Amino acid sequence: MSTTAIPSAAGSGSAATDKFKGNRVSSDTSKERAAAIYKDVLTKLGEVIFEHEVTYAEYRVLKQWLIEIGDGGEWPLWLDVFLEHFIEDSNSRIFTGTKGSIEGPYYVPDAPNLGSKGTMPMREDEKGTALVFKGQVRDLDGAGIEGATVELWHADSDGYYSQFDAGLGIPEWNLRATFSTDAEGNYEITTIQPAPYQIPHDGPTGEFIASYDGHPWRPAHLHLKVTAPGKRLITTQLYFQGGQWVDDDVAGAVKPELTLDPKPNAAGVDEVTYDFVLDPVSDARYVA
Ligand code: DHB
Ligand code: FE
After folding, report:
1. Which of 76, 179, 183, 273 might form a disulfide with 150, Cβ 3.0–4.6 angstroms?
2. How far is the CA of 197 from the centre of ligand 1 (A)?
3. In the chain, where are the structural domains located?
4. What is the pLDDT of residue 10?
5. Where is this region: Disordered (predicted)?
6. pLDDT in tens, 103-148
């Protein structure tokens, strides 16, 4: 068995923080809505404190840990693992197309476009089992959508994402690409199957997990963003049926509709078909 390299929290965390900080974000939240949300958050936090009779020592440990998470650049890691799945679920419940899942901290826009069919950028000696991943992008009526974009990014077989590799020298766009569906809405991608992935746990996020005797594993996954003009952008992930940690994802981001079961094709290469169904843009608040 090969050993799985562990991306250091300090390395990939600060890269994720720098990328996030590079893009100033805003929301049009009203003062009334902000007041309602903050009041509820604090009231519910207060209830937990009373329920568990949280001690002063525990409060001080929390304060110290919050400072360390920030100093270590680990907010993107911690938030995307432990909170993002609630946000995603809450925002996607009204839609009927393909289910979404969390984006995680390692998305980079504008990956090279390879048309409707191609092989992901990878190193000559890229490790991992080949995978042909293909399908169709459709609307809710079942019609194929020409020119839909399918962005795919995933970790290598050691669990590293390009551009967040803590100085390992992985090429910039390794295992990241954009595809555009053909006239029938079809795409076909050749890549390698990623391995299960440990979120970086050598820093305060790891301390948090160890403090409740948890584990840092996510099941192997492909990250995707799929959209087309007039259609809702879905950000999602696909997992491998029966794979390790599929039933116990540290990030709580697996949904049963989002699993793949590749089988060898005529050429003996693992292949799987996954079709995406896009909702029309119906409610501006929910356009990601
Ligand atoms: C994290 C990494 C991922 O690849 C992912 O999908 C979600 C979260 C993380 O390290 O925080
Ligand atoms: Fe990921």
Report:
1. 179
2. 8
3. 9-286
4. 63
5. 1-25
6. 998 999 999 999 999 999 999 999 999 999 999 999 999 999 999 9
